[in-house]
Structures are given as C-alpha cells and as structure tokens.
Amino acid sequence: MRSSWGLKTAAWSVVAFLHVPLALIILYAFSAEDKSYVFPPPALTTQWFGVAWLREDVWAAIELSFRVALVATAIALLLGTLAAAALARAKFFGRDAISLLLILPIALPGVISGIALRSAFGTMHIPFSFWTIVIGHATFCVVVVFNNAVARLRRLNPNLIEASMDLGADGFQTLRYILLPQLGSALLAGALLAFALSFDEVIVTTFTAGQQTTLPIWMLQELIRPRQRPVTNVVAVVIIALTFIPILGAYWLTRADEPVHR
Amino acid sequence: MNTALALPAAPVGLQRRISDLLYTRRGLLLLALLAPPLLWFGVVYLGSLLALLANAFFGLDDFTGQVVREFTLKNFVDLAEPANLDVARRSITMAVVVTLASVLLGFPLAYYMARYATGAQKAVLYIAVMLPLWSSYLVRLYAWKLLLAREGAISWLAQHTHTSWLLDALLSLPAIGGPSLSFSAIGTFLVFVYMWLPFMVLPIQAAVERIPGSYIEASGDLGAGPTMTFFKVILPLALPGIAAGSIFTFSLTLGDYIIPQVIGDSTLYIGQVVYKQQGVAGNVPFAAAFSLVPIVVIGIYLWFAKRMGAFDAL
After folding, report:
1. Per the CB < 8 Å rule, is A18 touching B274?
2. Which residues of chain B lie closer than 8 angstroms to A239, CB-CB?
C-alpha cells in the first residue's frame, strides 16, 4: 500500500522535531563560543572536552549517579523478576491491584512520589543519604524490569517447565537450567533500561538527595545558574552517549518480544 | 516397576523438599515470590503516600517553623486562595493544550508507523521514537534552551527566512508572549510537547496496528471516502490508544516543575509550588496538600480514560 506524500512528510517532520534538538547539543559541544548560545557557532573546537575532563565536580557527580544506578538496578532486578514470576500467568484476587501498584511510581507525577518520599523520611527522621536516593530510584525502576520479564515469560512455552520436572529436575534446577537461560536477555534488557532511567532521574532525586549531587542534579544546577556553559555542553553529550548505549542494547535484546513500554 | 528398585531410597534433600512443597502448594510459591516486592511497595511506596496524606492535615508552627502533628484543615483553606487557584487553573490548561497538540503531532507519525512503514524503516522509526522517550530529560531540556535563546537557532532561522516579524508578532501576544521564546509560555508549551510526544506516539501506534486492514477496505467498498473512513472507522478504533497516551502527556505535564522553571515566564505551575513550599519555605504540610490537587485531577482523568477503554491499549 502507498501512503500519501502528505502523511509521509508529516511523519518524518515529527521525527525531525524529535531529533534536531539532540543533534544541536552535539554541535554546541564543539562550539568555541563560551558566553552565549549564539547560532551558528562562530568556530569549532575540541578544547572543552579537555576542560570538562579535568573537572572534579563532574567526575564526583558521575560516580555518585553510577553507584546509585547500580544499586537501584540490582534491587529493581530482584523485586521486578519476583513480581513478574508471580503475576505472569497466575490469576488471583488482587492481581490487577498489584500491577497497578508497580506502575504507580511512574504513572503518578514525579513530584508526588518525590514529596511523598520526602515527607516519609521527614516523619521517620531519616536523614538524607546515598540510600534515600537509592530507595526512590529502585521504587520506580521495578516496573521496567517487571514489564520486560512479564513479556518474556508470557512468550515462554510452559511445557518446558513441565518437561524439566518430568525428567526429574527439582524446582530450583528448573529455575537454574530452564527458566533463567530463557529469561536472561529480557532481564538484562530490563536492567539496562532501569539503569538508564535511574542514571537520568532528576525529579524524585531532588526530593531525596539533600545536599548530594548526582549527575542530573549537577545538570539542573547548570541549567538554572550556568557557570561554564561549554563544560555543560560537553557533559550533555556525555549523558546522551551514556544513556543511548543501554537503551539501544535493551532494544536489541528484546526486539522479538513485545515492544518495550515504560 | 524396575526404576523403583534401581533408585535407592536416598534421603530426600532439603532442597528437594522445599522444591516439592513449593511446586505442589502453588499458593505458597506465589506468596514467597510476592512477599519481597509487596513488602517494598507496601512499606516504602504506600507508606510514603500515606505519610504524604497525613502531612497534608498537619500544620506549621508560625514561630519555630516546625511541623505540628495535629489535625487541621488550614492547608486546604489556604489552597482556595485566588493565587493558588490560579496556579491550578494554569497547570490544568497547559496539560490539556499540551495533550491536544501531542495528539495532532503524534497521530500522523503513529499512523504512518503502524500502517505503511515496514522492515528496516519501521525499526528505524520505532527507535527514533523510543530513544527520546528513554534518554535524558535534562539534556533534551537543555537543547531547547539553546534553540529558544534570543541568539539561538530559531531566531537565526527566522532571520534567514525573513519571518522574524512572525516571531515578534507571536511574542507580543498577551499572556503567552514574552521578551524571547525561552521566557514565554509559548516556549514552555513547545518544550512540554517535545518532551512527552513519544509517550503519545507509541500507544496510538499500538492501537492503529490492531485495526484489521479489512475494516478499512470494507469501509471503502461500502462507499466511504478517505475522510469518512478516517472519522468513522480509524479514529474510533484508535481512540483507546489516544486516551492511553493522553494519560501520560496530561499527568507528566501536570506534575513537572523543572521545565517551567527553566523555560518560561516565571509564572508558577503546581509542581513548582509543591517544590518551593517543601524546600525554601520548609512547609511540607502545605506542599503535601497542594500535591493532592494533581492526584485528584488525574484520578478524575483516569476515570474518564477508563471509560474510553484506555487501559486495554496500555
């Protein structure tokens, strides 16, 4: 079937709308202008990559974000997989309520989850720490792992499990030798997306971080009060690269499953 | 049977016993699987939401600025002040307009993806929509700061296409204009649409993909033109997808506090008031009460969306 030129143009224009701003970020990282956002950049240079490399505050922020994302992903991986295993096939009372509960942290505006966690920490007199950030991140990352694992579990042939048991394997062996190998790439994809989500999250983090600076919080401070614009431009490109890799990896790992949704 | 003789009656290991127990008693297995995630979500998340709700009914000591844990409705009385109602009205209007614009922009792309794109082109389009959805929110916001700045790419484009007069006319509009695009409500609107558009495209695409081609052929065979087919067949069947996408665009716009802080004319939105009240003002109770506004609005919205079948398209 042929589409009309109008529809085709409209569709690709929207794609351009989504991607031109990202391309612009990459261009600006090489801009020699450091006082304004003038377009087109008067000259191009790679010097700002060197300047950014030496910035310790940037490295500290990257390190904190990395550690938070790793721990939050690990927790999300465990909880998301367990929830998926329980909900993928079983039908029981309250099943829909549980899936709703898992989706809630990303369906409700971040500002609500943020203020909710903050008031809970405040009420319980829990001081802000590395772990308060992790708790927030893990909570909204669970659904990502859950979605990927459920999609794969529903595609699995249940006879494989029966066959494994018939051949004498116990439940743990079946888990180890049948289920996990089949689930592996879906779990990895879920973990990659959870990592990207955590690495990038800012709204909930501003409520749970106190004085700590994750990479997105660093970026937010620069957005509100720019200090050295070229360094911000370089960091923006680094963030694009660091989040695109896990996202594309996750897509590649699950391209046969249902499309990954948030 | 021979096998029974061949296998010595070895003591059954603990692992095997647990395994058998879990396999035969499915309820127990389910409980073991569900306990950790339910504990986490019940304690951490529901607990926090309850703490939020409780805080909304607490007050603030005028002298010490400490939270007083006594029941009061003062926060809700304060909510009804004209300035606060204004913030709520502005946020809801923005959420509605952003949602409508996302449908208008998202539909053609979603429709093209679902019905015409095939093979590699389809994969490219899918990645093109998915990457911005998952990738850095702040970096994409930053990109718009570059684009919308007075000396930025859009002004440059307007100058070189001799349409600066159009841009100036837009910016001189009352209420939505401003000194430059990055300091106007138009700018805020553009960025909101840009940010949440992928959330609209994907559910519409999924809904359109489920429309059988034969329906559209049948509509043509029965004498409907393309326009009539669109409004009588395609649009009604795509509606659940649109409703599903609109939940995201609506809810995300309503709760965002960073975009209007970075791009816009310093008028406040709900998220900003919540953030400021808990941070600078230290008034967590009032922030908690104000954050119930989007929850209630979204609740009403979800109820409408459910009636339109949005949850079947998620």
Report:
1. no
2. 136, 138-139
- Write out pLDDT tens, residues A206-258: 888 888 999 999 999 988 888 888 888 888 898 888 888 888 888 888 877 65
B48-63 average pLDDT score: 84
Q: What is the pLDDT confidence band of residue B311, given thresholds at 50, 70 and 90?
A: low
Question: Domain check: are A182 and A248 in the same one?
Answer: yes
State yes or no: ipTM above 0.90.
no
Angle at B313 between CA B252 and CA B192, to 5 degrees: 20
Distance CA A11, CA B197 (A): 13
Look up the CATH number of the domain holding residue B165: 1.10.3720.10
- Domain of residue A161, CATH code: 1.10.3720.10
Shortest CA gap A92–chain B (Å)? 10
Of B293, B196, B290, the C-alpha closest to B247 is B196
Chains A, B: CB contacts under 8 A, how many?
267
User: Does residue A112 lie in a domain region?
Assistant: yes
Same domain? A69 vs A183: yes
**Domain boundaries, position A90:** 56-253
What span, in angstroms and rounded, lies between the C-alpha atoms of B265 and B139?
21
Domain that holds residue B196: 92-313
CA distance A96 to A83: 12
Do A60 and A40 share a structural domain? no
- Inter-chain residue contact B153 with A39, CB threshold 8 Å: yes
Strands (E), A14-105: none
**Which residues in chain A are closer than 8 Å to B295, comparing Cβ atoms?**
108, 112
Counting as low any pLDDT under 70, the low residues of chain A are 1-3, 257-262
